[in-house]
Amino acid sequence: MYISGVPGTGKTATVRDVLKHINDGDYDYQMIEINGMKLSDPKQLYSLIYRHLEGKKVTPDHGNLLLSEYFGKCEKKSIVLVVDELDLLWTRRQHVMYNLFDWPNRANSRLVVIAIANTMDLPERMLMNKVASRLGLTRMTFQPYSHSQLLEIINSRLEGTVAFAPEACILAARKVAAASGDARRALDICRHAIEVAEQAGSEKVTSLHIQRAITDMYQSVKTRAIMNCTLYQKIFLKSVLGVFRRKGVEEAVFKEVYEVFSSLCQFQGLFAPPCGSILQLCVELGGSRILLVEQGAPSLHTHIRLNCSQDDVVFALKEGS
Asked: Which terminus of the chain has fewer Cβ atoms in its 10 Å neighbourhood, N or C?
């Protein structure tokens, strides 16, 4: 199964909860959970899986051979392998992903792979046909949380306490739903609001404390810098966000961003400056440390990353518009 959706929409938490309920029943299986972000090299996946199965340390290449033999055996319990941040296992030749999705198709493997990533169209856009075909058609997409869903999550965490005024929870849910729909960010705001209320000597968290928490969390030096950017700089940052969300990874190439930038300018009825001018604009944003721009002579293939969270950029662009 392939599960996708933007960060903070409960993909991994849902999988864990479902497997916990299955584990409470009469099913006999072994669960292995691996996060691609924690692997320095995609091939380490082989070593890690084999260590979970047999308790032995092996090299990645040896582990690959041993796992091929292991998933051909008949007598073993069922295995559920959860691979989070799947896109970080991508390599040019895609050998790791091919093996990962090929093992469950073997007759005696008794292996179920649940792959989780942020990119909805990763199989079509990034995987070779022979890899995507083994992934299958069982897919699930998690949408960003709405205001009402975020409010329900916040209230469930606060069940049994009267520390929060109802309007405070509503404000936190609305603000986050408008920016990203990330449940983790909503809960972070509530946690910080408790600290703000305690410092103010208040026994109850109010809307004022939530607003102060949002201000503290979002209006950093970088956020204020983004709010003071020029119109074209803001459109460029919006274009960077667009490319990130389309690709599902937080890195872009200037050429991709400029294509989105030109489209946004046209949509807003603005003149789209030539590529060279916007490349210089990109370098300036790198100089102010809003962006992390690949060192060397700037070109169409220069790599770009944000130097702050996407939520901070979304908030700053909305507040500064």
From this structure: C
CB 183 within 8 A of CB 145: yes
The three-class DSSP label of residue 82 is: strand
Structure confidence at residue 277 as a pLDDT band (50, 70, 90): very high
DSSP 200: T
Tokens of 98: 């091919």
Give the span between the Cα atoms of 94 and 38, in whole angstroms: 18
Q: Which of 308, 257, 249, 241 is nearest to 89 (CA)?
A: 249
C-alpha 118/C-alpha 126 separation (Å) is 13
Separation between Cα atoms, residue 176 and residue 83, nearest integer Å: 28
Residue 132's pLDDT is 73
Cross-strand pairs, 79: 30, 111
pLDDT bracket for residue 126 (50, 70, 90): low
- For the sheet with 252-253, list strands across it: 252-253, 303-306, 291-293
β-strand partners of 83: 34, 115
What is the C-alpha to C-alpha distance for residues 55 and 287, in angstroms, rounded to an integer?
A: 49
Q: Please report which confidence band the pLDDT of residue 246 belongs to, taking 50, 70 and 90 as the band edges.
A: confident
Neighbouring C-beta atoms of residue 121, cutoff 10 Å: 12
Residue 181, Ramachandran bin (φ over 0: left; ψ between -120 and 50: alpha; else beta): left
| Rounded Cα–Cα distance for residues 146 and 181 (Å) | 6
CA angle 245, 251, 253 (to 5 degrees): 105
Say which residues have a Cβ less than 8 Å from residue 238's Cβ, sequence separation at least 6.
264, 317
